[in-house]
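Deliverable D5.2: sample structural annotation.
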Amino acid sequence: MLTLDKVYHAAFALKDVIRETALIPSPKLSTENNVFLKTENLQVTGSFKVRGAGYMISQLSDEEKARGVIACSAGNHAQGVALASAKYGIKSIICLPDGAPISKVEATKGYGAEVVMVKGVYDDAYKHALELRDKMGYTFVHPFDDDNVIAGQGTVGLEILNEIKELDAVVVPIGGGGLISGIAYVIKHLAPHVKVYGVQAAGAPSMYNSVKDGKKERLASVSTIADGIAVKEPGENTFKLVSEYVDEIVTVTEGEISSAILALIEQHKMIAEGAGAVSVAAVMFNKLPIKNKNVVCVVSGGNIDVTILSRVIERGLLTSGRTCNLCVELMDKPGQLQQVSAIIASLGGNVISVHHERASEKMDINGCYLRIVLETRNYEHIDDITAALTAAGFRLV
C-alpha cells in the first residue's frame, strides 16, 4: 500500500542512486504566471524513471536480488532499471522490440543490463519478458503500476515542496500515471491547497479518457512524438490514484509539444523529450486555470532521439510563428521578385528559401508563383509582412 512513510523511505533509500534535481525559474515561458521547471531531464539516465525502479529494486528480498530482475521498455524505464540494478549489484534483463532505436539499445547496455531483442513490437517484448520471468524466476519491474515504483516517483513531489514555499500548482506529464500518482499523493497529503494538473499528448489520451468516463479504458492505437507517454492503457493503481488526487487533465497537440521543446532549447539551453515537454506546452498554450500563480512544470525526461530532433524543431518553429511559408502570385515580368524581397526586407523578415514556378493549368498564361520560406519573429510579424505585400498589390495564395 502507498503511504507517506513509504515515500519518505524511498527518498532515503535513493540518496546514493539518484540526484536531487534543480528547480529553476522560467520567467519567459509565460507572461501570466511565475513558472518554475523541475528538471528531471537532468536526472541520472536523463529521466525520473530511475527513482521508481531504484526504490522498487532496493526493496527486494535477498533471494529476489540473487535471481535478478527483468523489465520491458524501449526507453527511459529500461535505463532506470539497468542503472538501479547495477547500483545494487543485481542482474538485470531488459526485453526490447527489435525496432527500438539503436541509441536506446546501446544506452541500456551501457548501464549494465543484458538486452534481449524480441522480434515484433512492444507487446511482443512484454509477453517475452513475462515468459522469462516465469521460467527463470526473475522479478518483473513494472514501469508504473506498482506501489514501490509510485513511491519512488513520489520523491519528486517531496523535493518540489522542499524547494518552493509559495506553491499554487504542479503540472505533470502522464503516460501510465506512475509519476503523477506519486507526486499527487504526496502533495495532496502535505499541501492539499496545491493544485495538481496532468497533461497527455492528444494522440495518446488514455488516462484523460479513462478519468473523463469514470472507468479504465484502453486505446486502440497511439500516435505522438511524445513516445515516453504513448501508453494505451493506464494501470489499475494509477487510475485510482489519479482519479482521487489529480485536479484536472488536459491534452496538448504535436505542434504545441514541438513549440515547448523549442522554447526550452532557446530559453534554457535545455533538451527535453516530447513526454518531458508536455507540461511546459500546457502552460505555454494556456490550457490550465493558473493565471498569476506560482506553477511548477515537471520536465520528466530529456532522452529525445537525435534523429527526430531537427524535425521537432522545424515543427516548433512553424507552430510558434518563427518560420512562415508564403505563396505569392505574380505577373511574369522583370522586377517582381525585387519588389517582394524589398517589402520583406524592410519589415525585418529573412528569406531562407525561394522557388519560382511558371507552368500551371490554374495560372494565367503570363503568371507565375513565388514560393518563399521566411524566418520571422512571431505571428504578428507574419501578419505585418502579408499585409504589406497585399497593400502593394500582390496576391497571396
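Annotation notes: The chain has 15 helices and 14 strands. Residues 226 and 275 are 4 Å apart (CA to CA).
The annotation will be released with the project's public dataset once the embargo ends.
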